[in-house]
Amino acid sequence: MSKKLEGKIALITGGSRGIGAAIAKRLAADGAKVAITYTKGADAAASVVKEIERAGGKAIAIQADAADADAGKAAVEKTVATFGRLDVLVNNAGTAIPKAFEETTLEEMDRVLDINIRGVFVATQAALKHMTAGGRIIMIGSAVGERVQTPGLVPYSATKGAVKIFTQGLSREVGSRGITVNNVQPGPIDTDLNPAAGEWAVPQKAVTALNRYGHVDEVAALVAFVAGAESSYITGANLTVDGGMNA
Fold first, then answer.
1. Catalytic residue among 38, 156, 213, 233
2. pLDDT tens sequence across 147-169
3. Which one of 34, 73, 117, 127 is most buried, counting C-beta atoms within 10 A?
C-alpha cells in the first residue's frame, strides 16, 4: 500500500513534544521523512526520532530556538542538506505565558512575539526558497486567533490573529507557484503546556461544544490531510480543530 506522503520531506518546528511530536509521528507514519526542531528538550526530541525510526521511518532532530532567526534559517538548510529537498513546513513552535495583560512584562511580550510571529516569518521565508509546486506551508495557529473566550491570553491571541492574516496574505503571493498556505487552529488540546487537568482547563473545556479537551492526534490528523495531495484546492484557509469552541 503506498503511503500518502511517500517521498515527501517535512520540517516541523517545535517537534519534540505535544502537538508537534504528534504531527511528526503522523507525517512519518504517512511516509514522509521528517526533521524536527527543539529548543531545550534534546532527550524528548531524540525519543521522537527513535520512535519514528522504530516504525521504519526516517527522522532527524535539530536544535534551534524559534526566537533565534539564524537558527531557524539553519534548520531549514540542514533539512534540505540531509534529505535533498523540502515539501512541507509545519510552523508549530509557539509559546504562551498565561497571565493578565496588565501584569505581562515587556520581556514576556517580546518572547511571545519572537517565537509565535517572527519565528514563523523566518522559517517560512527560508522554506519558500526551496519549495516547488505541491509545497505546503502549514501554520499551527489557535482558535483564540479568531475568537477569545478565556482571559489571560492577550499577547498570545494577538500573535495567533497575526498568524491567521499572514496565512491569508501569503497564500495570495505563492498560489501561482502551486504552493498552499493554511492555518490549523487548535482549541484546548491536552499537552504539557495546557493540561486537561490544569487550573486553566475548566473555563476552556466549558466553552467547547464537545465538553472535552482534544487529543494531539486529532490535530495531527488534520495537518496530515492538509500536507497531502487531497487538500490541493485548499489554501488561505483557517481550519479549527477546537471541539466547537468557536461554533
1. 156
2. 999 889 999 999 999 999 999 99
3. 34
